[in-house]
Amino acid sequence: MISPEGAPSRDDEAALENHLIAFLPLVRRWARRLCGGDEAFREDLIQEGLVGILKGIQSFTPQRGHLAPFLETCVRNR
Question: Do 52 and 67 contact (CB within 8 A), yes or no?
Answer without folding.
Answer: no
